[in-house]
Each structure stands twice: as C-alpha cells, then as structure tokens.
Design goal:
The chain is of the alpha+beta class. It has 44 helices and 29 strands. The strands form seven sheets. Strands 3, 4, 7, 9, 10, 13 and 15 form a seven-stranded antiparallel β-sheet that branches. Strands 16, 17, 18, 19, 20, 21 and 22 form a seven-stranded mixed β-sheet that branches. A five-stranded mixed β-sheet has the order 26-27-25-29-28, with helices on one face.
Amino acid sequence: MDEDTAPSTVSDLQSAMPDNLQEEIHSAISQPEGKDTSESLSASTNIADLPEPASPCSKKFEGCDSRECVSFNGSGESQTASASLSMDNLAPAIGGSITPAEATISSLPNVISNSASVQTLVGGEPQSGITIPSGPVATSAQGVGEEAEADHDQAYTPEPCEDISTAIEECLEACSDFRGSHFYAHTFGEAPNPGLRLLPESELGRIGLPLNEHEAQRIWSRCLGNNPNTVGGVLEIPANTVRIDNPVWIPFVEGIRQQVCKSLGVADGGKYPPRLDLISLVIHAPGPSSYALPPAATQGTNGIPLQSFGSVLVTLPSPHIGGITQVNYGAAINLYDPSPTSYLGTSVLAWYSSSSDVRLQDVAPISAGYRLSLRYSLNHVDPATPVPYLPSPTSQVEHLRHTLLSWRNQGWAGLQKIVYLLSGDYSVERLRTARLREVVIDAGDLRKVEFLDAIAKQCGFNVGLGTIETIVEGTPDYMGNFDDWDEEGQFIGEPMFWDRSEPTPEPTPSQYTMGEVDSQESSCLVLVDVRTGEIVAEDLEDIVDDVEGHVPEDLIENLESHHMEEEEYGGWEGNGSGSLKRTYRATVLVVWPSFRDDEFLEGQEYVAERAFEALEDNETVQPDQEELNHFAFLLEYASREQRWSTDPQILPALTNAAMRWNNKELFEQALEKCHAEEKVKWLGARGVLDAVTTFGLEYMKPIIERTLQKDPSNADRLHLIDSLRLHLVTHRPELLPWTDESEKAVIENLAPLQKSDIPRLFDYLRKHGDLSTFTRTIIKQVNRFTPAHALCDLATSLHQETKHEIGTGFLKSPDDVESAARLVRQILSQAASNTDYFPNLNSHSIVLSQGGLELALSHVKMCLEMGCERAVEKILEKLDPNRFSKIQPGRTRETTQYATSLVAFLPQLQPVLSNHNDGNDVLRPGATAFYRSLIAWYAKGLEYAGFNGPSTAELLKVVQLALDIGSLSVLEESVVPAIAAHLRNDTSIKKLIHHLHSRQSAIATSPQMTQSFVKIIGDLLNAMISRNVRASSTVASLLEWVDLCLDVHHLGACAQILARLRQEMATMNKTTLSSVLHFILEMVKRVESRNFDLFGLETRPLVLNMGLIVMTWVDRHLSYAEVGSVAAELKRCSRPSCRSCGLLAHLLPLQLERNEVKLRGLGITEGRHVDQQLWRSRASATCNWSLPSGRGGDFTLKMQDGYYKASPRWKLMRDHHLKIFQSAKGGETFWQQLLGPQGYHSFLQRLDVASIHPRPALNLSMRPNAGPSTSATNAAGKRPYSQTQTGSQPVPQTPRPNAPAAKRPRLVNENIVVIDLTSP
C-alpha cells in the first residue's frame, strides 16, 4: 500500500479489517499473554508516581503546546496520569556540543512534511493511557496487571515506628525532593515529517509517512535478514543507515529534548547540556513485541565520553491498532498507547533507561498495522557533574509503608489523624467535579498527595484534602505596627520623629501586628476524600486540637504567618484602641486509619456509646472480631483524660464482658487501664464477688490483697472484707481466717481517717480491741491532714464511749476513761486547727458563709460540751479578722468587709460565746479579744462604707458590743474617730449619742469612765457640729443641735455651736444675720428651760460665746465691719509714707460719724494713687469718690446711705433690731450681764444710743472723746453720741516715722470734714 492509498483515519484502517477485529483487539488488551488483567484495570484507585509525578510544563519551547497524558481508571473515566511531561532530543545529534549544522541533511527537495512551519509542529489530542493501581513494590518481576494485595491484618514484625508524624513528614518531604518524573509521554497532533531515507538507496530509499502496510512489509523483508537487532516482532535499523533530510526536524527534536529534561528532572543548561543522539529506526510488527533492545554505544565528541541515562522513542505517523505499553516504577503503573492518534500524530515516550526500577512491558500487542519509531539515547556529556539518576522508589515506599503499618498496629492508642500543611492553597470542593491534578497545581504538593494516597490505601488508611480556618480577634499593637525592630533589638525603621509639615503616615491594617489576642478559634471548613471527591465532613472543630498530629507541629502558628485571607479593622473607638480580626485559611492533607472513621467524624463519645451498647446487648460466650474491637476501643477510651475515673460505666462494661468470655487476660487489661486496683469502689464489692465466682478466689486473692493495700478508704476496704466474709460463710467457710487476717491488716495500717470510717472502726474495737489498740491505730492518723468532720465524729464517739459503763466497751478501767477524756480534748483541738471555715476564700473577698458560721458554732458548742475551751480559743482565732491581716498583708479592704459581715452574725455568735452564770453573762475564753478585733476592723471599714454608711441598727449593735465587753478604749480610739471622719448619716449618729448617754449611768462606775463617756459623746457632737453648722444653716436646724447637746448635758458642745456660728458669720449676708439674734434669744430660753443657771460657772463658756456673737452681729449688721475693712486695706498701702491713704484710713472708721471727707490740694498724681488703693480695698460698696480735676484739685469721698450714722437707712436698721434687744427677758439687765460692763458700753456706743429703751435721757458725759458739752436745747435734733468737733479738736493722724506734720482738719459742718493739704 503506498501513500496515496493509505487509510486517512484509524476508522478507515479498522473498516478494512475483519468484522471480529475489534473483539480480538479488546481480548488482546484484556488478556495479554494469557494473563488476567481485569482486576487491576477495574481498580478505582489512582496511583501516583511515587518519587514525583511529572510536573506541569512551566516554560514551553517555541512551537510546543504543553499537554497532559490521559489515562483511564477502571470506570472508563479519563483521568490525568502525568502533567505536561517534557520532551527531548530526537534528531541524530541534538543538544550538547552538536549544533544543527552538524546534522546530515540531504535531498531537501524530497522532504515530506505535515506542516509548513515550525509553529504548527505541535498539536493534536493528548495521548491516551491507563493508570492501574498497584500494591507494594515486589522484589521480583511482577506480571502485567498483577497487583500485590495489601494484607491489612497481617502481623507486622519489624521494629515499629514510634514518632509517626515525624516519619510521615520525612517520607513526604523525601518524595518531593526529586523534582522530576520517571517517564514522559506526549502526543503531537501536528509535527514535521523528518524526511526519512534508508541506505543503501538502491534497495530501500525514502520512507513515506504515514507508513502504509506495503511500505512497512517492504522494509521489513529487506532488512530482516541483514539486521542482527531483530527481536521477536521488533525490527531495529541502526542509525548509520538512516538519514533525516528535513531541517525543520532538528529544532522540533531540540524542543522535545528540553521538555524531556524538564520532565525527568535533569538540569538543562551550562556548557555541556544533555545530548539526544539517534540510535536506530524501530519497526513494531503485529504480535508480541519487546523493548529489551540491546543498547547502542554512542561515541563522544571532542574526546568527551557519553553516558546514556535515558531513552526516547518518537513514534512517527504509522497507523496501527493495539501496542499498549505499561511503564512500571515501584507502585506506580502508567499505560502508554499511541494507537488512537497513530495515523497523523507523532507520539513521544521517554524514560530513565539507566534505572532498573523502570520497566516497560507490552500489555496489548499490535494486532493490525505497523508502528514506526525513532529511538534516541539521552546522554550525559558534562564531566564536571554526576550522571542524572532516578531515585529508587523501594526505600521511600517501604519507609512510608513501615510507618503506616506501625501506626495501624498501635490501634486505638495511636494518633487519630495526622494533619499535614501543604504549601499551596486550593479549592478542595472542586474535587467533586475536577481531577486531582486540576485542583492541586503545585507539583510538590501533588506528589505528596498521590504518593501518600497510593500507599495509604494498601495499608488501610483514608486520605482527604481539607481547608482549615483560624479566626483571631484582638487589638492591634500600634507601637510595633511597622515591625521596625530586628531580632537583636536594633531599630531598622523610620525615625521616631517626622517632619510635622508632612502628614503622618497611616499604616494599613495588614501592617499592624496583633497585640493582645482576645479569642482564637480554629476549625476544618470542609474535608474531601482524595479518591472519590466526595465531601467527608464539614465544620470539624476537633481536627486542629491534637497538636501531636500536626505537621509541622506549629501548624497553626505557621498558618498565621503566611495564609491570611481576610482582615477586618474596627479603628479607634474613642480613647480605646480599635479591634482587629484576621481570618487565615490553608489547605491540609489529612490521613487517618479507616477503622477509626466513626471516631474521626462523629467523635469518640459516639463510638464509646456504640461500644457500650454492643457489649451490653451481646450475650455470646466467645467474642467475635467486632466485639473485640469495641473492647479495645473502650480500653483506650478509659485512659483518655482519665475517663475511667469520671465515667462509671466503663469498668463494669469491660469486666462484665471479660467475665462473660471467661478471659482473664482481658479482665486484667481492664483492671490495669481503669486503675481498678487503686480503689475498691471502682470495681465494687459486687464486681469482686462476681469475679470470684467466675475466676475463683485463688485467682482473685492477689488482686484483692493489692486493692486492700492501695485503697485510701478504710470504710470501703472493711466493707469489701465484710462482703467477702458473707460470701465465704456459705461457699468457702475454711477461708474465713483469711478475711480475719485481712481485716486486722487493714486496722493496723489505716489510711487517713474519714467520717464514714468511725462507726466501723469502733465496732471492731468493741469486739477485738482496747484503748491501746485505739491509740496505736486510730490516734496516729490524727494529724493536720485529717478532715475536721472526721475528727469531730471521732471525738464525739470517744466521748460517748466514756459515758458507757466501764467494761462494756473497749474502755476497761477508770484510767482508760480519764485517758479517753484527755484524748477527746486533743482531738477537738486538732479538729479546730484543721477546719477551714472559709472554703471559698480567694484573692477578691473574704467571706464567711452561713454554712461556715454554723460549722464554727457547732464546733464551739461541741467543745464547750466536752470541756475543751482551748479548742474554742483556736476557733475564734481562725475567725479573728487579725488573722487575715497577718497571713495576707495588704488586704485591708477585704478584711474590713469580712468584719462587717461578721457583725450580721452577732445575734448567733453572742449567745454561744457568753456563759449565763448567776444572772450575769460571762464571756468565754478568747471571746473578748475576738470582739475587740472585730470592732476595730469594723471601724476601719467605715472608710469604705459609702455615703450613707452602715445602718443605724448595725452601728448600735457594734457600739453595744463594745459596751458589753467593757472596752471603752476601742470606742474612743477606733470607732468614734472613724465615725467622725467617714460617717455622714446624722440620724444614725444622733441615735448613737442618745444610746451612749442612756448607757452612761449603768456603765460609768468610776470618774475615769465618766470622763471617757463625756469625751466620746463630745467627739461625736463636735464632728457633727463642724459639718452641719454653716452660714446657710437655718435657725431650726441649729436649735436641733442645741437640743441634742442639752439633752445629753453637754454644754461644751453648745459653746462649740456658737463658736462655729461666729466663724461662719463672716460669710453671712445681712438677711441671714438678722436671724442670729433670734437664735441667741431662743437658745437662752432652752438653756434656762433645762434648769441651767445661765450666768453660772458651768455655762460661762456658753455666755462668753453668746456675747462675742452679739458684738460681731452689731459690727457686721450696722456696717462697722465693712467700713473698718476698707480702712484696714488703706493702711496697708504699698507706699511706705503715704499720708493721703493714712488720713482716709483714720477718718473713715470714726464711729461712722462723717458723711464726707475732702482732701484739698491733693493733686492729680496723688489722687490716682488714692483711687487705686480704694478700688483695691473694695471701697466702692461703701462709698463714692471723685478725683481732682487739675493740679492742686480736691479729692472728695462720700459715704453711701447706710454706712454712716446720719443716714436714714442706718437709723432704720438700728431701730428695727433695737426692738429685738428690747424683747429679751430681763431687758437691759440681761444684756449687761451677758456683755459685761465694758462690753455693754461698747454695745450702746455702736448702736448710737444711751440705752436700749426708747428715747432715754442722754448723758453726754458718757461719750468717749467728747468735746465741750452743749446744752440739751442745742443738742435737740442732733444724733446722740455725735462727735461734733471744733476747729481746735485734733484729728488722729497715722503715726509714721519721719512723716511730715499732720494737717489740721477744718469742720465745715457736723458731717463733713475738710483737710487742706496745701496749708502748713
């Protein structure tokens, strides 16, 4: 058949064959060489290339389109077998030192090509193949399709691997170290025609493509007899008789060489890159064929030796059917089938021919047509580098297999899962619709997934890809937001101070480092099965909890360093820092034993519940494998987090199953895992008796004896002995002495006493012991670790034993009774020391609960009943607030709060701590010191009591307690100062004062105590007066305090009220001042109404303060104080010798006699100075003034209405209040007695009257500094006590050193005085 008659397609070739050809071809593929391959071809597992599957092509040579070889799984669906496998040298000599020009080129006009340009050389559909799952690597040759079965249940005898996670990490890292693949396969839809020509031309000549059957048979017949390399159905023609005439073939083959080097992981660069040399032209005829062709030696160039490490087979267009090649490498099996595209396509197959681990086998021979191929050798030519080699998969596979089997053999005690962090992030949900190689695009991750999945299936493990998520919430670290400090603490960022003219740079949220972390949550969002693409589980929260199964161990920290997906920054919130929330996601590879699927997905509690149900419901005598599996799980489940101690159904379930199966070994395992020999209660008396019935007493005796030695409960041990005794009485009475010996051994070696031990121990003592036995066995257990309730019960039982008739119990004599009473006191004393009345004591509070108080009271009563007062003192010492100030210094506030809480328990405490004897309450020993401490700490707590303070009842309770114990000193030193300083509740203080006054006569039995009472009451009154007597106080409120002071007979406090009122009068307005006189008169009435002698010796301080208040009132209300204040300020003039201010300071306060003062000739400069001084002294409220208009002008000052006696307003005020003075009982006599002679004289002078009665006859001689007397007629119509001055009467001057002579004033009239400063 020539080229023109050749079939145009494979379909045409098939149609020319017999009808049953397709069935024969299918039979040949399914049953090659009589071997059954249906089982291997139908397997659904995709086995990876163990060292590394072919990696995708990242750099394509010109004219090459990267494709994937396609294989088929057993279901017939296409699946990627290897990623863009590289292509390499196919010219006679491509690469290395051989250039395209050195290739033999001839007969260019006769070139036959499928394409006109290099750009169209590459194309076509991906090459088809079949990926067959395989078992472990066999040491001998393995038949085609024969999968080594993995025996999941076989015994694994080599040394087991201990660190599973580290071993798996090493295996996965090792498989990704080799960056190449063991083979390369690709099909080009369009490729150049090499222009083949065989020598000698006279016999063979050119070869047309696609190769037809006639041409193939011609070449076969001509070369068969002369070719020594013919093996079976393969004819190999040496390269020296082959010529390639198309020059385009050279760059095409160079591209193939580059792709093959890249795929096989061979370095392609440098001075001597790998070479591709043509070895032969190969023709495959129908029938079985072999690739075991003899290697051909290739000579080096320029003396450089060549070392072949790979083979490349380029299949040229040659239609054929069949010819499927199986590439074996360890556990990986790949099928190469170029027949579907053999009519026009050019296929390439390359492999490491130097590796004995790569084996090519003919799976399905060619059934029709011939296959024409060019065989090339991939040679290493660089003498400075080692020859590339393919790592043996055997060690990697065996290492991983050994690790997985070791893990599986650990059973339930091993890791539940291993979570391995991949380098890339992938959308694992796509596995449901896409192939693995389409999802995992990183070559290293892909090799790890496929390698692990291949071996995991053989060893009984499941593999999944999951997406884990970690959400971290906290506050950003603004100080370190740019990470400006290196590991050695050196500043590497921008300067701390920047140019203020430039805006401050605002970092983005991603530049902030996480400061304080508030919460961190991790979970697995989705987990997908690598083999099926089905979602295994969603939202698995426990998958990231077991750090031991993380690879790397710091998986979460590594995740937070490189895999941030989302970020939310809240910004500043007022003065608080903003919130920062970051979400991290990553893809992980998860592997877990298949027998732990339920535990992994549903949780161990779910598996445990199923195991309980299975063991309880099954009544079989011999266990099946499922029951043994449940039993094994519960054994391991019991040891996790000490569940054997928290879940009471684990041990019974295990022991009952072991006893049902009559399996002592399993029974012992259950006892060991659940620590059943440590306590009797774990197995229980019932369980022990069942085991005795099942296994016999001889078997159980060592177990029982060990349990009796280890159990810390005396009651449980004795109860077990009693149960055994009852059992043996019926079944084995001859063994009863053994129980008696066991009981005695327990008594002689008691564990720490518990409350439940006491009745059983006393029963034993009454039967078999005496007081010496009690002392030898029980008393030695009384120590500071013995529970107090047990000691109390022990003391009570021993005390009751002393009440029995001597000889009826274990007390045999009166000496025993006396010794027992002494032991009771010792036990109670120890119980008091061991009792914790504050079980919830913490660093925030000291609280005595009601239960703690009742416990303390019960202990006190018990101690008093048994005559142990020393124990009472110990109890009170433990309740004493001073105890906490000593053992926990710095907790003053908590201690005071505790003292306050104790006050609420006083009604319960006091009856117990008092002994009612002969009508008197006598305090128990230690009670007085306890109460004194309680009161002192309560007083300290008033500082923290708040505004309202404690209730009145509580305060009275504490004061009464102090009075009851006769401790006035604690009141005087602690309580009263604290109340005065911190308590603001006047009502409570008033009641407290009345209470103290009512108790004074009964308690104050000596002058010293009376004096203390008076001082205590006075301190309380003075504290209240200093807080409550104010300028704004009303007369009614002041009188309330006066009544309180008078009721408790404390006139000194009344005087304190008046003294305080006098101080406040300086800030009173005149309206308030008007009420002061009414208050004084009302106070006088109340003092006299209580039978006090107003002018007696006892009330003298009170009367003196009243007089001072009256005189102060006159000065303030009638303006004397205000005018005097202005004068005093003028006297403090800043000039050392200012006569102007001095004159005004003397003229203004002259009994308010002058209305106007004129300084003649003062001048402008001096006038301004006087003006400043008057403003500084606030004189504008009392007078007006005018400055001189020119040089030598006059300065005039006029008093305002009400600030001089002649003014109507002043007279009106005087006359109004004069009526109040007149209303006093006793009239003028009262005021004379109140103010005294001199005070009363000054009083009248200030009022400008001769007497407080209306219109009295004037006695002008009484006026101080009076001038010549005038007749009454002349005086009519004038002011009483008006100091009318004549020209001869001197005006007082300011005494100043070296002052000029005083100017003589001239009286213009009785209200105006003029001083001429210009006259000498």
